[in-house]
Fold each of these.
Amino acid sequence: MQRRIIWKTCHFARIHCLVDQKACFTSKRTLPVGGETDDPLYADVPRPPKKMSERKPYPTPMKVLIRRAKEEKEARKAEPCRMLEEPPDNGLLVPELVEVAHQVYQARKSLLFGLSKLVQVVPVQRCRFCSEVHIGHVGHEIRTCTGPNSGFRSATHVWSKGGVQHVVSFPKCFHLFDRVGKPRVGHDERFEIPRIPAILELCIQAGLEIDKYPTKRRTRPVYSIEGRIVDFELVNKMDDVNRNSYSGIVDLVVHSDIKTDVEELRNSDLQSDTNLVDKTLPSDKVGKSLSELSIITMDSWFEMISGAKKIMEKYSVKTCGYCLEVQVGPKGHKVRMCKASKHQSRNGLHAWQEATIDDLVGPNYVWHVRDIDGPALDNNLKRYYGKAPAVVELCVQAGAPVPNEYRSMMRLDVASPERDEVDLVA
């Protein structure tokens, strides 16, 4: 009898411990991690990039995308022939975003102009073997190099002088003459259509007019017949516009007599952009102090990013799930140029998905340096260092105040120990 009582008490005690342990685990899961829910300005240091074999995370959950696809399919069955009413799906512009497109275009000009001046004062270091960038006179000693033969160097970087193209990157995409009538670029058309910065293509589709890159503007909405776009608008000048008009632009890149090195192309594009900025911006900005110029440059960065986010809410942008390719438009192109993981199963086609602002404008996160004249960052203290976009770090080193959005990411409230105190810190 006593044995039964003892066995029952032990059995109830085990169940009680399991229940308490389960409740403890569930309570820990419901707690906010790092204050993300309490502080909207909190942003942790970005994690290192995943393996190239892993796909990028979807900005919109897959269940939401499946539900939207089913709703669109049912709407096409219920009404096979219908006129699209909401812009820009119907081929018309969104009126309130036309001014935003012009602001983003001007902000990009101002950003390139400011960076071209700041780079001459604040040095920029780049690794010769990988995409790592550092802002400062001396490159850091953190072993994060993933370039060729990095194992023989113990993953240490080999630094050389960098430029504006290493601080911020603007991925290129194909320019679409008619984003609704012909949203896809075929593989055989890859040499006939120019490639321009994706953020510039986004501004053009949102209402920016550039003579060098013409685009079709409609005055009436299009129709959708069983999922296919049909345009009944009579355009007399449609036959006059020919895709061969791009040949003069494309020959600069495709011609065999001209060098096609990637770095030289980026430098030439950057020089043309800065020359254009020098002509358009007022001359009084050149004589301003370094701190004022850094503040103006950082404001241009935030204005460009915020404006691009507003436009991307209406105008879709696609990116490959495995590589850095970007295409502005309702659909991705069909050019077989993907060389990332599993491209053999896709026959070189890209795995298109919804893009984010980081895919449209490469922020290129760098380590934050508190004292630009101090010693190099130590590899053993890397967990105490913060990060920030290269543009923000460059402007802060030039005298601009630290923005509130990146205070937690730069870890300004963390006191890093000295090199001789590493063993004393837990």
Note: The two ends are 53 Å apart (CA to CA).
Amino acid sequence: MEFKRDVWSLLLVLLLGQLVAFSMAASSFASSLIANLGVDAPLTQSFLAYLLLTLVYVPIVLRRRQKLQIAWYWYLALAFFDVQGNYLVVKAYQYSYITSVTLLDCWTVVWVVMLTWYALGTRYSLWQFVGAGTCVAGLALVLLSDAKSQDEQDPKKIPLLGDALVIAGTVGFAFSNVGEEYCVKKKDRVEVVAMLGLFGLLISTVQILVFERKGLEAVTWSPTMISLFAGFAVAIFVFYTVAPFVLKMSGATLFNLSLLTSDMWAVAIRVLFYQQEINRLYYLAFTVVAIGLIIYSLNDRSSDDETAGSTEAPAQYQQLPIEDNSTRIGSSSGSQERTHKEEVHIC
């Protein structure tokens, strides 16, 4: 029975991981089609996604009638970085190709390593640095591939500019992902997604009024265009809904490997739907990045365990004064109840 339960749980994680990867590929496909139709409205695309998250998750949080577990200004900062990351990456489809954009998204791993090392004190093994370095080498091949293919297929494209926008967007994703992962593991998942949607909606609304109002007025809202914007919003909604489950059930290992399959779908989309040839360097870059992600992911569990152990010790140490005070004030049974409540609150 236990073996069957493990098999079913593994299949569930694999299914959810592929759902995340498919939603990411679907959002990339919708963005690339919108860009090819001459529409430049990345903030509006994100606005609809955040609106959908807000309509679904904020009522759930309000129904609970509880105070936020995390101060609102932290959610504001988290949403700000997420909005900027989405804006820059979606904007990149105006200048680059879907294959390059989806693969360069892996640059987020590099920034996350640097950010968690400096800000959170996370320590990584030598093999994790080898994996991250391998990914960087593969991403460098993507830049070289785009530099050689510039103006060969679409004179309106500026691949290197699009690649630069993606890399800049991954910085925002790194800050957002690190903050979201911490909040999801330490606090309430529904509250995190709800507040991310709400503040993302407010920030994108302000930026649309300032930067994108004229471009939005020029859009011809045909049934095809409405379907593409709606499809992008639904795909992002599924991504933000399912990703926390995958992170919580399997950690970053299977999550990163699952996202890697979205790059394979991006190649298929570019070949089948756009009838475009792929530079040979891209296949080499894809292989190198795949190897790097596998090396990094296979050695990711040890660092997570070390981080969990390092965070668990201070939490127990902070409970000692509470245990002492409760012992002086009341009986030992009351002390155990207070200690148990405090442990639940910390977790």
Note: DSSP finds 13 helices and no strands in the chain.
Amino acid sequence: MDLMRPLAVVVALLAVWAAAAEGFDILQILGKQDEFSQFCKLLNETHLAGDINRDRTITVLAVANGDMGHLTSGHYSLGTIRHILELHVVADYYDEKKLKQLSHGATAASTLFQRSGFAPGMAGYVNITQHRGGKVTFIVDDAADSVKPVTFVKQIESHRYDYSVLQVSSVLSSPEAEAPVAPPAPVNLTDLLSKKYCKSFAGLLAADAKAFDTINGTKDTALTLFCPVDAAVAAFLPKFKNLTAKAKTAILLYHAVPDYYSMQFLKSNKGEVTTLATTSVAKKDYTYEAQTEADTVTLDTTVTTSTIQATVRDDDPLAIYAVSKFLQPKELFKSKTKDLAPAPAPEGAKKKTKKKPGSTSTAAAPSGDEAADGPAADDSADDAADKAGAAPSPLVRWVTAVATVAAVLALVA
């Protein structure tokens, strides 16, 4: 009996950890029910869905299609709609049980609108009140007396202490959130890159119409661009010139991500990054790993490891970061990890010098019209150091889980 208790605790903790590691996708959760299709559509169009998915300890107050009211009338700009929707994202965890057990029967909770910096005073807070009979209502703080609170309808899905998705009876009203939002000033991508760190990379983009049009056409919706600094472009240019036209386009698109990643998000999250090359080149992966070590963000392609040197722009929906090296995809160049264990030399043959991780390697021969681009450029010594110091995220998660289990066992022993 004494042994079963700690074992049960360990199993429960591992289950919680595994569920949290799987991630959270608000569009996938609400997409299971057609009645929330309009709410999902606006979350997607305003890019708020991505921010919700990246957050933790969060409650989403979803509204069914028939209760969306003026939010779908076409009266508001996307900027204003985003602010209104931000009122429906509470920066705390509330499930049905917690709502009906509120201390003193009421509380004020901060929302993403408050966090956005556009909410004056208490306009970004929502008052949650429990009434007799189990009824629970939500209303924006400082709302006019004529504004009616919205009512909790049901719990859609929750993961305890992590995220919760609830249905409410209608859209929350707030004059501050509904205020007109001026459209962002147009961004000239070439000028922006040329003025800060990335003039050479801007020149390569401008010379490739397909890559430029694809990247430039994405910047107003959601784009993160990792531009190599001028010195990195100069070092890689001899290899770049030997690539075919198709490979040149692919490697330029490889530096662009069709999503907005703030610096804060990059530093607090690890994982695989999908690029515009991934979505543009059939049957090719074109991804890499983004990791953080000692407050430094690294991008590991398995061929090169590049670090973010400076922020060129970080303003939703566009983020541009200057990186230390040209990102070389494993689809065009031989991965360093494949050189870690070279085959032994045949007996009698002259011994070859064993290669070390991060040493010079020859480029893999791409198939089709992505012709081989010649010998791979020399990787600097800090490539190997960066690579060795960047533990893969699954390992980090398992180490964390094991440490947690060990602590629990110590407590219950």
Note: DSSP finds 16 helices and 14 strands in the chain.
Amino acid sequence: MTEFWLISAPGEKTCQQTWDKMMAATTRTNNLSTNHKFNIPDLKVGTLDVLVGLSDELAKLDSFVESVVKKVAQYMADVLEDSRDKVQENLLANGVDLVTYITRFQWDMAKYPIKQSLKNISEIISKQITQIDNDLKTRASAYNNLKGNLQNLERKNAGSLLTRSLGDIVKKEDFVLDSEYLVTVLVVVPKTSYSDWEKTYETLAEMVVPRSSHLLCEDNDSGLFSVTLFRKAIDDFRHKARENKFIVRDFQYNEEEMKADKEEMTRLSTDKKKQFGPLVRWLKVNFSEAFIAWIHIKALRVFVESVLRYGLPVNFQAMLLQPNKKTMKKLREVLNDLYKHLDSSAAAIIDSAMDIPGLNLSQQEYYPYVYYKIDCNLLDFKV
């Protein structure tokens, strides 16, 4: 399970007592979850008005930062293309995997000094993540353009003989060049019609050079034939060929153009390789930065919400639960029993919801205790 429940409950006689009680209810007898203390430092409380306003702002900031974290993760998967199994090992926070980072969370005093007000800390995070989001758009756009241009060229050089570029197939000696009267054309002939082609190509138009047809290459369905004729017969030949399901390709042998195409492909391929390494490094660094910021926002939200709900002086225990998938419903019931005395109205809503099948309160997940979900499955595919 990559889902965590970040909760808080008020300190009983001590915060340790709150922790021991929760452990006894969820782990010691019934193994409903794996639990960790979640350390939040002594942050500046500020006024009640500020906390109420900050509660809403942090909810929006939480959604925004989560979306950027997911964007960076998903783009890492897109860039790594064929090595998608390596995505997870590149998605680290502070050099460790995400589960380790969350379960051993320590507030980063250097990045987010706790002497600052809560509002200032949230603004630092907001600016930082907006910058990452903007940089990602710029870098992704440049890399995607490059990748798209390269793919277009590669597509031209792949596919069937009816559509693909022929520059890397034909040779100079396949053509009559620099002739005022004669021209060599290339015709795609279905494999099932080879004998028809041999019998008829010389008579499809006047002025076709006898025995001038040669098979140059084949794919699964067709063959590419060259044939030489007089220039003025081309239109007639093209028309008659089509009637017989032979397709004349629109191609002129031009060494300079073909060379330019090859050079362009080499240049794009080299540019893509050059950009790949620095881009992956940037994504790794900034994924880590964004993820760390996201978990700090969760910590801020728990702090603000706990002060608003449980009052002053600050006295609560933040706890991180990793539920076992099969017992999530049971865990929720145990937590509600444990904490329903904190908020009887929330407990009543939950009890009635449990009694009414089909009533879904998940949009406004509200419990007697402070609760936030952290889902570490950030990709839209399983790796």
Note: The chain has a mean pLDDT of 91.
